[in-house]
TrEMBL record:
Region (Disordered): 261-280
Gene Ontology biological-process entries: ERAD pathway; ubiquitin-dependent protein catabolic process
GO function terms (MF aspect): ATP binding; polyubiquitin modification-dependent protein binding
Keywords, comma-separated and alphabetical: ATP-binding, Nucleotide-binding
Protein name according to UniProt: Ubiquitin-protein ligase E3A N-terminal zinc-binding domain-containing protein
GO cellular component, one term: VCP-NPL4-UFD1 AAA ATPase complex
Residue stretches making up the Ubiquitin-protein ligase E3A N-terminal zinc-binding domain: 652-676
Classification of source organism: Eukaryota, Fungi, Dikarya, Ascomycota, Pezizomycotina
Any Pfam family: UFD1_N2
């Protein structure tokens, strides 16, 4: 056996050039990249001496002889082997020689250029290498950067050096965080903090600032205490106790004040937004939403053969609310939001409508429809900025031929003129001819017609003063807030907070977040976990394999695991299992129906069924069309071309059954004395005469060569029971098409199995009813499939 000696602490350090941001691959958290040569040096520095003590090294070794024992010990000290073993996790101490700042980091990969190191934006800010925007601080707040009278301390990129030391850190047990702003609610950031640290950080350094992105908001925390090591700890494979303390008493009081105010505005309160919840088709849902908040609804059931229409109306036309919809399913797991939704309407109109056709591919595999109503938060503060907005939400079903009322008012140009009326050229209203002169004098003096949208305004009204038209599209509005919203959402570029994708506008960003963004949450069909659709080690979303497979990058990678097919026991990749099972379906549908023993009391097939469903169809086995077990007592080796001798043997067997009986208490054969008594066809003490017996068996003997006519031979108990169970299984379900024309389809109806397959299933599974049903599902076609 090999005995590992105590491994000494790994010692290695070097000084590398810091790669500029544009030459650094996307890194998050405290991750760095090192050159491949650094890995070779680390492996060389991590040599561990291991003594091999499995076998004696001297031929004269005697553990009770001190002289031979000393020789054996010396021989073992000389025979050693060296092993390379790096600590896990591999952590580094980074030192900026220009300002002396120290930060600990974890390794992402060894792929940097020679004599170079790549740093994440968080590490660059913490070490003072430039003031560029951090991935971990989407609001632009610098993290740990030195700020003085001349601004942020910067180091010339071309001359930037970094000293890297490998240093093992203990697993953390405790961390104290101090919020840098008042009013943080633990319900808002607790789950985000746990996930963000787990996904992006290997270490925590005392004194660094963590920035936890949450949509447009960022939670900032100062690391102000660590255990068991006060300088730094590792977060891998450990349970960490987190303690939150305010920076000072003033911040604590302000936080408590804001939490009390927030509780008054909680969903469901009079001053807060509505609670949302489940809604149903053809119902009006009245509610309220605070500016900046969302009210989430869920539609669980609807007729998927009809179109579905959503109508959202604000009670006050001056209020601005938005409507977002996302089909909830395996490919979409996030609630619809401004920057992440499948369908949305955030126009400047108080009336919003979204109509979804039932043929829309986004509705495929949708388990529910998630609907969110958002109150738009005006950037201009006023008295009405935080008053809840009243609205009405209606969901209805429509077909292709139905028409709905339009959202705009009928134009005055469409109103027919009377015989004594004419239309004003300024306001387009119908005016009596006798008063047209007076009307035009007043109208031209007080009203003005917008040449773009043909709307009429009073010259002195604030609506006309604030009326605007977008030079890039057909949008327009009557207040500065609507223009700001339109320019911000439609014409301002947006950046994805997960992958830094540069979107042309907010709708483009929402499309990216629900389609190709690596951070889009999905429900993996293989690991059944809610995960991002593309991990750091998964293939690219635009790779040919991902596109052709129809899977997400995570599913393509996770689906490479193998499992055993429950039907054929072959080892198949998870992502190939669907195709593999389709081949089994083709085999199942193409199988020939097995032949059943002609004996109505027998539960066997004529040719036998393999465990894998193979039907071994052969020719005629005997002249009676019964199985070998039933034919065994009738077999003789004499030449009988006309079957007369066989007929006599069958006649004798029937007479024996009717006059004497088989003597088995379980018999249910109506052509047996015992069976007839068990069936109640023969009273106790009553007997059948030979004459009565001959008259009973005469029709059977006359039709003996007709293979469709049944025979009645006594069998064993298990065989007779299998026959009865097969008849019960065949009666489950119904005939295909038996409910045609009734406008409904009962689940399981028409999906039963033919009697022959039921007999085969119970024969293979030894009469086990549950296993027989499972065998039928895997190997036998249903009646409906056979009828196609």
């Amino acid at each position: 056996m090999n005995t590992n000696l105590d491994r000494p602490s790994l010692k290695w350090s070097t000084q590398l050039d810091v790669l500029p941001p544009e030459s650094t691959p996307p890194l998050r958290g405290d991750k760095i990249t090192l050159p491949p040569s650094a890995l070779e040096q680390l492996l060389s520095a991590a040599m561990v001496t291991v003594a091999n003590t499995a076998q004696p090294q001297t031929s004269t070794f005697d553990p009770y002889n001190p002289y031979s024992f000393a020789a054996e010990r010396q021989a073992r000290e000389q025979l050693v082997e060296r092993q390379q073993q790096l600590p896990h996790p591999l952590t580094f101490r980074l030192v900026n020689p220009e300002n002396g700042r120290i930060v600990f980091a974890g390794i992402r990969e060894f792929s940097a250029g020679d004599n170079a190191v790549g740093l994440s934006s968080f590490l660059r800010q913490s070490l003072g290498f430039g003031g560029e925007k951090s991935l971990d601080n989407i609001n632009g707040t610098s993290t740990g950067a030195e700020v003085n009278g001349s601004g942020i301390h910067e180091v010339t990129e071309a001359l930037a050096k970094l000293t890297v030391h490998v240093q093992e850190l203990p697993k953390g047990t405790y961390v104290k965080l101090r919020p840098l702003e008042a009013g943080y609610d633990p319900e808002d950031w607790k789950a985000l903090l746990e996930q963000y640290l787990r996904d992006n950080y290997t270490t925590l350094t005392n004194g660094e600032v963590l920035n936890i992105p949450a949509g447009k908001e960022t939670f900032r925390f100062l690391v102000d205490g660590l255990k068991p090591n006060e300088e730094a700890i590792t977060l891998v494979d450990t349970d960490l106790e987190v303690d939150i303390e305010p920076l000072n008493e003033e911040q604590a009081r302000e936080t408590l004040k804001r939490l009390v105010e927030k509780s008054k505005r909680a969903p469901g309160t009079s001053d807060g937004s509505s609670a949302g919840g489940k809604i149903f088709i053809d119902t009006n849902e009245t509610g309220q939403v605070r500016p900046g908040d969302y009210v989430d609804y869920t539609i669980g059931q609807w007729d998927r053969t009809q179109n579905i229409e959503f109508e959202l109306t604000a009670f006050d036309p001056e209020n601005d609310i938005d409507l977002f919809i996302t089909p909830h399913g395996p490919k979409h797991r996030s609630r619809p939001r401004e920057t992440e939704h499948v369908f949305g309407d955030f126009s400047n109109k108080a009336f919003k409508r979204i109509k979804l056709r039932h043929t829309n591919s986004e509705l495929d595999n949708a388990e529910a429809l998630w609907v969110s109503v958002r109150g738009y938060e005006d950037q201009v503060e006023d008295a009405q900025a935080h008053v809840p907005i009243q609205y009405n939400l209606r969901v209805s079903l429509t077909d292709e031929t139905s028409t709905t009322a339009t959202a705009h008012t009928t134009m005055t140009d469409d109103i027919p003129l009377g015989p004594d009326e004419e239309r004003c050229t300024n306001c387009n209203q119908a005016v009596p001819k006798r008063t047209m002169f007076l009307h035009q004098n007043f109208c031209l003096r007080n009203n003005i017609l917008c040449p773009h949208c043909q709307n009429v305004f009073q010259k002195s009204s604030p609506e006309w003063k604030n009326h605007w038209h977008c030079p890039h599209d057909n949008s327009y509005g009557n207040n500065p807030s609507s223009r700001t919203k339109h320019d911000t959402l439609t014409h301002a570029p947006a950046i994805c907070s997960f992958c830094d994708y540069n979107a042309a506008n907010t709708p483009d960003l929402a499309h990216h977040r629900t389609t190709t963004c690596p951070g889009k949450l999905i429900l993996c069909q293989f690991c059944h976990l809610q995960v991002p659709q593309q991990g750091p080690d998964d293939p690219s979303a635009d790779s040919a394999e991902v596109i052709l497979s129809g899977l997400t990058p995570h599913e393509l990678s996770d689906g490479a695991r193998t499992t055993e097919c429950h039907i054929c026991a072959k080892i198949v990749r998870l992502r190939d299992m669907t195709t593999h099972l389709k081949h089994h379906d083709l085999q199942r549908l193409s199988r020939q129906k097995p032949r059943v023993c002609r004996n109505v009391n027998c539960g066997r097939t004529l040719d036998g069924i393999g465990k894998g469903g193979e039907v071994r169809v052969q020719g005629s086995r005997n002249d009676l069309g019964v199985c070998d077990v039933c034919f065994g007592p009738l077999y003789v080796s004499m030449y009988d071309p006309d079957g007369k001798a066989l007929k006599r043997r069958v006649e004798r067997k029937y007479l024996t059954q009717l006059l004497t009986g088989c003597g088995q208490p379980w018999c249910r054969n109506e052509f047996c004395k015992i069976g007839r008594k068990n069936l109640g066809l023969l009273q106790e003490g009553q007997a059948i005469t030979s004459k009565e017996a001959l008259s009973m068996i005469k029709p059977t003997l006359d039709n003996l060569k007709d293979m469709r006519a049944p025979v009645h031979f006594c069998t064993d108990e298990a065989n007779q029971k299998r026959r009865t169970l097969a008849e019960m299984m065949a009666a489950e379900g119904g005939e295909p098409g038996s409910l045609k024309g009734k406008g409904r389809e009962k689940e399981g109806f028409g999906s039963g199995y033919d009697f022959e397959w039921c007999v085969a299933a119970l024969e293979v599974e030894g009469g086990d009813l549950d296993k027989g049903r499972g065998w039928l599902k895997d190997y036998a076609p249903t009646r409906a499939e056979t009828a196609r």
